[in-house]
């Protein structure tokens, strides 16, 4: 048995990677002093940094995307209810909704793992989200001060473009069609709202609406305690941000570690969590001026 980098735990894999080094107990070289926090002119601060409260406000384009995304979700749910009512189905649409809820949790976990570990600000399509999540690791509390549409617009835009074609492909007027519409509506709705659930997981308990606190307590929404583990060393667990229901299975099965090894051995790309110093993930103490 040997120890690899903090993310290399798969003992069955061959020991020839130049990237996997034996962990020693010698003291690491001192880290350079952290750079001074700049004031709100970089794009990263727009997502995760502590400055410039104006970057946290919703704009009309943000609201428009959330409105169109919500419209597609509501259309799916209404269609499910109308088809179910017409054919007398109840169990199938409920099962579809539960599956959609679970898949949304799993999907946010996989997506969160991917953008936490791969790509960068210049990555096409996903660059802004990647940069945003890097900033979030340094300034997690900032998300609680982000306005609703500002926080949700990127996922709402994705929902706007993906849900209508899927709905178009669902045909029929029986119980399975009702289940499919319920699945799509609940899954897309939970994915779109996942950043709000994520924000609530960072909020102080006393500031949460009582219903949200109760849902977190019941495990319906990802709890503050569960998500806090994602922001603690070794920063490689609890990626799911809808309910957190899939976190334990994903983390205990080490599926993300296995996927990282596959990516590394197949493409030579190391995940950020293997090499990023803890200082890059450690929460900074700076707060938004006048907001805390
Ligand atoms: Zn993360
Ligand atoms: Zn977080």
UniProtKB/TrEMBL annotation:
It is a multi-pass membrane protein. Its main location: membrane. InterPro entries: Chloroplast_FAD_CarF (IPR052864), Lipid_desat (IPR019547). Residues 101-274 form the Lipid desaturase domain. Residues 25-56 are annotated as: Disordered. One of its GO terms (cellular component) is membrane. Keywords: Membrane, Transmembrane, Transmembrane helix. It is found in: Membrane. One of its GO terms (biological process) is fatty acid metabolic process. Pfam families: Lipid_desat. Residues 27-36 have a biased composition (Pro residues). Belongs to the fatty acid desaturase CarF family. This is Fatty acid desaturase 4, chloroplastic isoform X2. It comes from Ananas comosus.
